[in-house]
Amino acid sequence: MRYVLRKIGLLLLTLWAAVTLNFFLPRMMPGSPTDAAIAKLAQNGPVSPATRAAIEAQLGVPTGNIWDQYVTYLGNMLTLDFGVSYTFFPQSVSDLVLTALPWTLVMVGVVTIVAFVLGTLLGVLAAWKRGTFLDSLPTLTGTFTSAFPYFWTALLLLFFLGYVLQWFPTSGAYSARATPNLSLEFIADAAYHAVLPAVTILITSLGGWILGMRNTMINTLGDDYVTFAEANGLQPKAVALKYAARNAILPNLTGFGLALGGVVGGSLLVERVFNYPGVGYLLYNAVTNQDFPLMQALFLMITVSVLVANFIVDVLYGYLDPRTRR
């Protein structure tokens, strides 16, 4: 219990630091949406102070000293009130995030879990059968595919499977004539549109899980407790999974925690290539348009998800390896 309480305290401290940093970073960036709007109006002549004040009021630009803004920011954060988006005015930031988040969680989240489970199992198999065909095939394939950049793989799949063969849609999350609902017809249509971005993420991330698990487990197989288990006549499957793989999976579990936390942030380049309306695509629009309220909300959401995922991994560490509790 003391171990868990320490981790909770560290989580809260880190969360406060992330929230504070998320407040100050946009204010340290050069320029502002107000300046961009005024620059467009200035082409027709000088802009009066009254016009500037009206634009700031319309966009909801914070006023007062920095401390008052910080206190207001913390209060708004607790109520999930992130203001109005500058890019998609007058839509609220919360509505935009809630609309984009399910697409990213379903597509990127499912693919991340599948890649981790499949890659870890293949890594266990490759390490247990080291030096054989079952070792060289997944290892070489994983090394080859993990060297592909996300955007390059996405463009290849988009060109050959989307434009040349026309097997899959080239953009969007569902058909233009479809209306989002929970019917089987719409779910099948959404899954059909998610094939190319999902395969892109799976291809480029699977190799890392395979190689990481294989290399760590090979080192674990040489430990004394594994040799002792084999000498006691335990089944090879039990030795591989309950002894060698259980300890070798810890580094992979750390990487999975980071990857699972990053799911909320989406895969920016992949979503941009396929015009997939997830969080990554929303973040791209926020950055390119200097949409500070939207950027703050997305950065905060990504940070919190990574911290919570790391906290869960730390707790699992204490269960899988009791030595970490000390």
TrEMBL record:
UniProt cross-references to InterPro entries, sorted A to Z: MetI-like, MetI-like_sf
Biological process per Gene Ontology, one example term: transmembrane transport
Organism phylogeny: Bacteria, Bacillati, Actinomycetota, Actinomycetes, Micrococcales
Keywords tagged on the record: Membrane, Transmembrane, Transmembrane helix, Transport
Annotated membrane topology: Multi-pass membrane protein
Record GO cellular component, one term: plasma membrane
Presence of the UniProt keyword Membrane in the record: yes
Keyword Amino-acid biosynthesis annotated: no
Pfam families linked: BPD_transp_1
Gene3D superfamilies given in the database record: MetI-like (1.10.3720.10)
Coiled coil segments of this chain: none
Gene name in the database record: nikB
Name by which UniProt lists this protein: Nickel transport system permease protein NikB
Family: Belongs to the binding-protein-dependent transport system permease family.
Protein localization: Cell membrane; Membrane
ABC transmembrane type-1 domain location: 101-313
Residue spans crossing the bilayer: 103-128, 149-170, 190-211, 253-274, 294-320
